[in-house]
Amino acid sequence: MDIHYQTRQIDYRHRRLEQSPKFDFHLHDRFEIYFFISGDVHYFIEKQVYPLQYGDLLVMNNRELHKPTFRSTATYENKVIHFHPGLAEPFSSMYRFDLLGCFRDRPDGERNRLHFLPHQLEELIALFQKMDVLAGEPDEGTDLLMTTALIELLVLLNRAFRQNRSPLTSPVALQKLSPVLDYIEHHLDHDLTLEALEQQFFMNKYYMSRLFRQSTGSTIHEYILLKRIALAKKLLHDGCNVTDACQLSGFNDYSNFIRMFKRVVGLPPGQYRKRKWG
Known about the structure:
Blueprint: E1 2-6, E2 10-17, E3 31-38, E4 41-45, E5 48-51, E6 57-60, E7 66-70, E8 76-83, H1 89-95, H2 101-104, E9 113-114, H3 118-136, H4 142-163, H5 172-186, H6 194-201, H7 205-216, H8 220-237, H9 242-248, H10 254-265, H11 269-277
Antiparallel strand pairs: 1-2, 2-8, 3-6, 3-8, 4-5, 4-7, 6-9
């Protein structure tokens, strides 16, 4: 099953897959709402791993690196919304209710999973069912109805966000890696080879790699690459030129930076900067 509907500012998808798809670490320019229905999934966001169960909802902003890890071949079903934050900002201003607080008012990689009271979960499911119907039977005015449904959903999410401030306890393997991930986060322009990290933390590089793969299903190298691309995107968005963005984000080879940026983002850094700055 695959229900998909797209407007200029909203992308809605409800999928059920008998085979688990393959995902690498990724970022979006838009914000993401991820509603989990079924499967055997641990979801990695920045420095946290969230074991998912039915009814869990994750929110991710456009700076948060994330990746689902599939623990078995169980049927996988979820509903995902990507939307441009600019869509919600006029409503936030007009009605003095911050619709983007659950994406912005927290450290990256923390409090991504929202918990709902029973009546809130019922409202949440009803809203997603409404979006399923709208996406499955589009008609005149569907774009508008999808937008109002999203705004209603954002009100519900932010009410839940404000009510629940309990911290998450990470799995043991990720707790051991936490200092390494913190170091990577703040030293992206340094040497971050496995050998350099081994010397920095007195942790065997093979053991470190194995812990990371067990927790995320991917490699430290891929994680560092995507973190550097995310930093380069931010620098370019803030007005930095391509050469400085390359150096400040830890790419020592300019041609490699151009190639990797295009592979991940879909266009070269010069074009990405031009698109942001006109």
